[in-house]
Design goal:
The structure is a homodimer. Chain A is of the alpha/beta class. Chain A contains 12 helices and 19 strands. Helices cover about 30% and strands about 25% of the residues of chain A. In chain A, strands 9-7-8-13-6-10-4-1-2-3-12-11 form a 12-stranded mixed sheet, with helices on both faces. Chain A has a 3-stranded mixed sheet with strand order 16-18-19, with helices on one face. The first copy, chain A, is globular and about 60 Å long. The N and C termini of chain A lie far apart (about 50 Å).
Chain lengths: ~350, ~350
């Protein structure tokens, strides 16, 4: 590994897809999670961009998004470079989206794939992990920037660690959402990490592995890019070959198949803000564990989240509850039930 | 007691005062409980009027209300007779309000004082009790149409029964809001009843007893009526003497002092709809105990009340909770805490 490679910049690839129905009613189809200021004044996308803006570490970013959200991106992230925004002709999950970006980069470029709607409290830890992951990616490892678990969460995929690598660990195998017992066992054993959906790849290596395990997808993506057209900051891959792709996540299509999977475990205060309870966990709280704006009143409440786009919220005598007021929708959910919000009629019929 | 008296009509006196902050935010100062359609399509006042409209039993009603609410009354209860609406020059609690109406009636008229914001499920039982109470009132008893308790409620006043009377019971004494232990003891002993604020008096006897125990108040009311003026359906007592009255409830001013207090116990499905939980108890419920309009969705909920003036309410995983959406206010309270809603900032600052 040359020192030139070690010092080369990392190319952020920011994925802006996803519906985010579990943060309904604040998150809606036309205005999903990446584009909302859920924590602090900036939107999740703006915070993701800011994390990847350190000029000593990162090259200018590439964003991948659906056509519906391109105007939102141009509004929230002004000053993007030419062709920095790849507009997906259709929603086909993360593997094709990542491959589109890889195909537009130099094969030797190290790309760091980042969802645009995750929260990372410790940006320094993120930068350190990204640097370590880039080092492994230079050596043609496909690297998950994996999250050090702090609880036996059953909603995430786990990664079982294998042999040590310089700056990381080889992946032994991926374990999809485990049972509570299994998750507790993982934590007790140690070394396991959550697959957080943040990856470092050498662009050429990613495409090589995709071609090995999903040759049709790889070919369709390459054709779609070859026949694409430029429009200012937007790059439009050709729609016809892309639409024919059978959608699949990068995890299923590549990471769980390759024998070059590695991980860099990172304790960086990560959350995917997957539901109102996890957003609550990422927000500050008063001594009773409540979070509420100034025009709310919580009396005899513990661990209550109250978020409104206008009306005052008054809560009396409740614990472990999230109250969300947004336009013509009012949601009241227990923290335990928060992951099921996406199944509500309001969330699904929008 | 002559048969003529027995057959004479009862004069309903409907009291339309009170703030009703415990049903905030639906109930507001400008639009309090009597004027809201909380149960069914008609307002509480309209239902009270309908209960007292049986022509074989009742004479035309007299209403007593503040000037602020006179237009609401004229809108909700069209067709009132001349001077049927007595406009209180100032809010001075129920004793002066009742006395105003008594002073406008024939001294031998039997008046039935009814709050305008109570719910009575069994109207036949109400009529039967009113008839019995009127019989006692003809004999110069001051009669509480008392509620047969169905639970050891601590929020109401209790009446201890004394010796039997024809059609009722002499009042031994009034017991203000008792402790839980005491309330349970009352229920176990039997015969105790709740003081529901519905009274039958011979108008002249009520004024006589008021003059005995509150001579200043009685005199001020008589002066105020003597110097009052008529304006269509409204009668305006003179403001100056009335304003000087120290406000007091009819219970304190007369009922707890007189030795002529009697009660007619009535099991008539009564509720004072004193808070959201008691409203919920008076509303129908689905098999899970929930009550929600068609544009609400309750999932894994038990005994949840969801009431909205527009926005959809979605509730997930909660039990024994009331969710109220009204204009710029959203209230979420446990059933247990519902009596304390009036102390919320929103309820008190309106």
């Amino acid at each position: 590994m040359s020192s030139d490679r070690q010092n080369s910049l990392i190319y952020p690839v920011i994925l802006c897809g996803g519906g985010g129905t579990r943060l309904w009613p604040r998150s809606r189809k036309a205005h999903p999670k990446p584009f909302l200021p859920l924590i602090g004044g900036r939107t999740m996308l703006q915070q993701t961009m800011a994390r990847c803006a350190e000029p000593s570490l990162f090259a200018p970013p590439t964003l991948v998004a659906g056509a519906d959200h391109a105007p939102l991106i141009e509004e929230q992230v002004p000053g993007l470079g030419a062709t920095a925004l790849i507009v997906e002709p259709a929603a086909r999950n993360t593997a094709p989206a990542v491959a589109l970006a890889a195909a537009r980069l130099d094969p030797d470029a190290i790309m760091l794939v980042c969802p645009s709607d995750h929260h990372i409290a410790d940006v320094n830890a993120f930068h350190a992990a990204a640097k370590a992951a880039a080092g492994l990616a230079h050596g043609d490892w496909l690297v998950s920037l994996a999250i050090t678990p702090d609880r036996p969460e059953t909603g995430y995929g786990y990664i079982k660690p294998g042999e040590p690598l310089p700056g990381g660990v080889k992946v032994e195998r991926f374990v999809e959402k485990p049972s509570r017992e299994l998750a507790e066992q993982f934590l007790a054993e140690g070394g396991y990490a959550w697959n957080g959906g943040i990856f470092a790849f050498r662009a050429g290596k990613l495409l090589e592995e995709l071609a090995r395990y999903r040759p049709d997808m790889a070919e369709a993506v390459m054709r779609s890019v070859a026949e694409g057209r430029v429009e200012g900051i937007r790059f439009h891959p050709a729609a016809e070959p892309f639409a024919a792709i059978v959608g699949e996540s990068i995890d299923y299509a590549v990471m769980e198949n390759t024998d070059r999977a590695a991980m860099v475990p990172a304790a960086m205060g990560w959350s995917d803000i997957g539901n109102w309870a996890s957003l609550q966990d990422a927000l500050p709280a008063d001594p009773a564990g409540n979070y509420a704006p100034s025009n709310a009143e919580l009396v005899d409440c513990q661990r209550v989240l109250a978020v409104s786009d206008g009306p005052r919220i008054s809560v009396l005598g409740l614990s472990d509850v999230c109250v969300i007021v947004d336009g013509d929708e009012v949601l009241v959910t227990t923290r335990d039930a928060a992951p099921h919000v996406g199944k509500l009629r309001g969330a699904s019929e929008q």
